C-alpha cells in the first residue's frame, strides 16, 4: 500500500521550518499532501489562495509533494478523502509536544487507521513560528533566512499594504 501523508497547517506563511519538515517527510512517504487550512481562528496575513500559490512555488522541487486547500472539516475526514493513511506534524518544543499529543490522541479516537508521525524540528529552525516572523517583519527586522525567498518578498509587500 502506498504511504500517503497529510501535513495539515495554516502556513500563514509557510516557513523554512515547514519546508524542512516537508522535505524530510517526502523522503519517508511515497507522497505528501500539504493541506492548507481555509478556516482557522488565527489572524491571517495571506488568503488561502495566496498561501496556496506561495507554497506551491516553494515545493516545486519536490515531485511527490502536492498542495491542496483544506476546507473547514475534521482533519481525519479530509485525510480519508485524500487517501492519506498518515498525518505528518512537526514538533519544535515541549509546548508543541503537549499540544500535539492531545490532538494525536483525539485523531486516534476519531480514526484508528490514521497514524500520526512527528518529526522533531531542525534545531536551525526550532525557534521560529509563522506568527513570530510576522511580528518581526511588521517592525522591520530581517528574517530572510527563515523564509523561502518569494514568501519573504510577499511578506514585505503585505506589510507595506497593511501600513497604508
Ligand atoms: P497550525 O495552525 O496547524 O499549528 P502551523 O502552520 O503553525 O499550523 O504549523 C503546522 C505544523 O508545522 C505544526 O505541526 C507545527 O508544529 C509545525 N511547525 C511550525 N513551525 C515549525 C518549524 N519552525 N519547524 C518545524 N515544524 C514546524
Provide a descriptive summary of the structure in words.
This protein is an alpha/beta fold and 164 residues long. Helix content is 45%, strand content 19%. It is built from 6 helices and 5 strands. It has a 5-stranded parallel beta sheet with strand order 3-2-1-4-5, with helices on both faces. It is globular. The mean pLDDT is 95. Bound molecules: adenosine-5'-diphosphate.
Helix and strand topology:
Layout: E1 4-9, H1 16-28, E2 31-37, H2 48-58, E3 65-70, H3 75-82, E4 86-91, H4 94-110, E5 115-120, H5 130-138, H6 149-163
Parallel strand pairs: 1-2, 1-4, 2-3, 4-5
This protein binds adenosine-5'-diphosphate.
Cα shape: globular
How many strand elements?
A: 5
- The number of distinct helices, counting runs of at least 4 residues, comes to 6
Strand content: 15-25%
- Give helix % range: 40-55%
Bound molecules: adenosine-5'-diphosphate
Give the uncertain stretches in residue-range form: none
Secondary-structure element string: EHEHEHEHEHH
Rounded average pLDDT? 95
Structural class: alpha/beta
Biggest sheet: strands, sense, closure? 5 strands, parallel
Biggest sheet, spatial arrangement of strands: 3-2-1-4-5
